UniProtKB/TrEMBL annotation:
It comes from Adiantum capillus-veneris (Maidenhair fern). PANTHER family: AMMONIUM TRANSPORTER MEP2 (PTHR43029:SF10). The chain crosses the membrane at residues 27-49, 61-80, 136-156, 163-184, 190-217, 229-248, 268-287, 294-312, 318-338, 359-384, 404-429. Belongs to the ammonia transporter channel (TC 1.A.11.2) family. One of its GO terms (cellular component) is plasma membrane. This is Ammonium transporter. PROSITE patterns: AMMONIUM_TRANSP.
Length: 487
């Protein structure tokens, strides 16, 4: 082919690489998206499967696994465009597939300097990353997926799996897309200048509020499960928590849509806040309960990660430490004191305390971002170029008010819409499993056990399988009988 026949965008770039493509940004964004995906699968799959009683390990892990797959298909079929496409309403984008255009640039290859403020009244300029639409669809998918999986943490141990299968696409469509478009995709809160760097409102506040709301409608676990629901494997809980913690580098580091200074600040601040929060939570456990709790440390880690998320790339390191102190103490207080003394909260069975770790921490982080957002760092993050926190004077107090209004919108929408979805699903299938299934657990629901140590129908015999059994007998049994697990 003659050089004149080659499209300009593909010349002098080495094969099929267009001139507008920033390979570094594209590579980081794909990497960040995959890291966030690993937070969910296997991160939360392992965390959920090990934090519940043994009899619910399979069901809990499967709820996360199913949601990841279901969200992807819904996302590329209609939900991505509802979150980031052409405006239909100030809170919603127009539905449509994101499949046929996945190889194109997300909107147009214009540098940020060529964007403008409409009539001087819009806080936020519309920006376009320099990589294919497929990259952005993938990156935003993993955020949508993990939101549903976090929500599931409130419903473990009793929600009818068939109801969960219906709930996932409905909640994604009528709740998540609203928050995503309003705050990130060009909706009214986006243009008003609400700071939600990586999802403190869109993901964590919404999943925590929706999880508590759904838990109210689904109903509680069996009484004996609520009273005794110890993790079946604490070490695997730490493994899942570790994947979640390190994976947050992609969660917050990918938010600027570029491999830049904001991304570096976001990653460092994320780990500073998480570490501080973990230490504060652990110290509070020691001070009040006389023992450092591993599960408490995991909760503190999560609240720190959630709290820093809305402001990860727009606050200084010292502010990340201060936010960590708040995130390790206030959610601890709401979970350990307020929840136990509130008759209303006691009636709602939030299995893993998602309301406290995500809703409370997300709300807290959003308000603290309005206080500590640093002007120069805000100017580097295209989404909020003219903002600053209250501690820096000027219009900083206004930013706190904006953050509060944004959080109240997310809270109100999720309470109403999640309730409607649960009532609709309840008309089709029961939201809660029947008591006979709740008594047995995984084997009754899925016909599978997480830890099938003995063959189907084989009776546990202390003389054969116990620590004090006769060695010769044990050797004989193992050499002549091979237990076979059958469904």
């Amino acid at each position: 082919m003659a050089d004149s026949a080659v499209p300009l965008a593909y010349r002098s770039t080495g094969g099929n690489v267009p001139e507008w493509l920033n390979k570094g940004d594209n590579a980081w964004q794909l990497t960040a998206a995959t890291i966030v995906g690993l937070q969910a699968v296997p991160g939360l799959v392992i965390l959920y499967g090990s934090m519940v009683k043994k009899k619910w390990a399979v069901n809990s892990a499967f709820m996360a696994f199913y949601a990841f797959a279901a969200v992807l298909i819904c996302w590329v079929t209609w939900a991505y465009k509802m979150s980031f496409g052409e405006k239909l309403l100030p809170i919603w984008g127009r539905a449509g597939p994101a499949l046929s255009q996945s190889y194109l640039l997300s909107q147009a290859a214009l540098p940020a300097s060529e964007h403008f403020y409409k009539n001087g009244t819009i806080e936020t300029a519309m920006g376009t990353p320099f990589y294919p639409m497929a990259t952005l669809v993938y990156f935003q998918f993993v955020f949508a997926a993990i939101t549903l999986i976090l929500l599931a943490g409130s419903l473990l141990g009793r929600m009818n799996f068939m109801a969960w299968m219906l709930f996932v696409p409905l909640w994604l469509t009528f709740s998540y897309t609203i928050g995503a478009f309003s705050l990130w995709g060009g909706g009214f809160l986006f243009h008003w200048g609400i700071i939600d760097f990586a999802g403190g409102f869109v993901i964590h506040l919404s999943s925590g509020v929706a999880g508590l709301t759904a838990a109210y409608w689904v109903g509680p676990r069996l009484k004996k499960d609520r009273e005794n629901f110890l993790p079946n494997n604490v070490l695997l809980t730490l493994t899942g928590a570790g994947l979640l913690w390190l994976g947050w580098s992609g969660f917050n580091g990918g938010a600027p849509y570029a491999s830049n200074l904001s991304a570096s600040m976001a990653v460092l601040n994320t780990h500073i806040c998480a570490a501080t929060s973990l230490l504060v939570w652990t110290c509070l456990d020691v001070a009040f309960f006389k023992k450092p709790s591993v599960i408490g440390a995991v909760q503190g880690m999560i609240t720190g990660l959630v709290c820093i998320t809305p402001g990860a790339g727009v606050v200084q390191g010292w502010a990340a430490i201060v936010m960590g102190v708040f995130s390790g103490s206030i959610p601890w207080f709401t979970m350990m004191v307020v929840h136990k003394r509130s008759a209303f909260l006691q009636k709602i069975d939030d299995t893993l305390g998602v309301f406290h770790t995500h809703a409370v921490a997300g709300f807290l982080g959003g308000l603290l971002t309005g206080i500590f957002a640093e002007p120069k760092l805000c100017s580097l993050f295209l989404v909020v170029t003219n903002s600053n926190g209250a501690v820096y004077g000027g219009n900083g107090g206004i930013q706190v008010g904006k953050q509060l209004v944004g959080s109240l919108f997310v809270i109100g929408w999720n309470i109403v819409v999640t309730s409607i979805i649960c009532l609709v699903v309840r008309l089709i299938v029961p939201l809660r499993m029947p008591d006979d299934q709740l008594t047995v657990g995984d084997d009754a629901v899925h016909g599978e056990d997480a830890y099938a140590l003995y063959g189907d129908g084989e009776k546990y015999d202390q003389t054969t399988h116990g620590w004090n059994s006769d060695e010769a007998t044990r050797h004989h049994e193992l050499s002549t009988v091979v237990p076979v697990y059958t469904r």
